[in-house]
Hints:
By secondary structure, the chain is an all-alpha fold. It has helices at about 5-25, 30-35, 40-65, 70-95, 100-110, 110-125, 135-160, 175-190, 200-205, 205-220, 235-255, 260-265, 270-290, 295-345. The chain has one domain (about 5-340).
Amino acid sequence: MTRFPAADGLRALAALAVVVSQVGLHTDAPFAAAVSRLDVGWAVFCALSGFLLYRPHVLAWFSGTLPPLTLPYLRNRALRILPALVLTAVLSIAFVPHPATRYLQWAAQTPLLFYLLLPGLGRLLTGYERPTRRSVRWRLLVLLALTVLGPVWMAAVTATGQSAAALWLPGYLGWFAVGMGLALWQVARATGRLGASTLDTLTRVPGTLWGIAAALILIAATPLAGPYDHSTPTPAQALLKNLVYTAVVACVLFPVLTPTAATVRVLGGRPARYAAQLSYGVVAYQFVVLGVLHGPFAVQLPVALVASVAIAAISYRLIERPALRLGRRLENTAATKTDTKAISPSSSPAR
């Protein structure tokens, strides 16, 4: 399987969850506990990125081919991420009394840094030996260990009063590692490197895993996971929240790896695919929209959703999609030049 259609709907739902949580935070909604923990959508985005971006490295490792080239990969990431991010920064500075600096700092220090490190991390975790069952299990254990880094980091920076460090990559690396681990498991299972297990049964009962995820979010909605705003949590609260979110994204993402027909119908249709294309823009531009909105939660939520989707649709059509097309043209041009050199007379063996 080269495409995971159910991931589109999951990405769209993650964007919706983020917007709802941010509106609740912006309006001090009386039911803050019910909506603030929907910021788990950030964790879902991280896990999806880890899965989709690390999987090509795993496929190359298993097939014995070269891993994705670093420069084309970085170029494509830049063309996908930076246009909307830069426009968000410009609009925020121009129209928002208090620009969304926290989001911009997080975006620059976490997703962008992960994208920069992924080529090296991918080579580190897929090189040096053949993809045997033992080597696959060892790497799964490494990625499992990385999932513990996030909660420990959050607890440590909270205990030492280093609140700015809570925006750094180590605090969120566990969420990316969940996606990377699932990418490795999915390819290893599909190619027979790993045998059948109980995990295969779980993929056929997505409702069970999603129910567990919902129960975990309810646990996170209690004071055990800390305050419902940007107030500083205790170290134990910071650790628990990050750890619970890690478990939630594992439960949410796992069923889309080998989705049932019903899962594909619900999460993988054309509307979901279009919504997924806009999801990044919706999450970015909603900070600008909320910066100029006033009123209660019931008013701000629909306005924020409609305005963010509208701006994201315009941005995608006029800026992001042309940028992606440029990336594909550059990639095709580079591939054509490579093929031409490969068949040119000067590269042919002498007779």
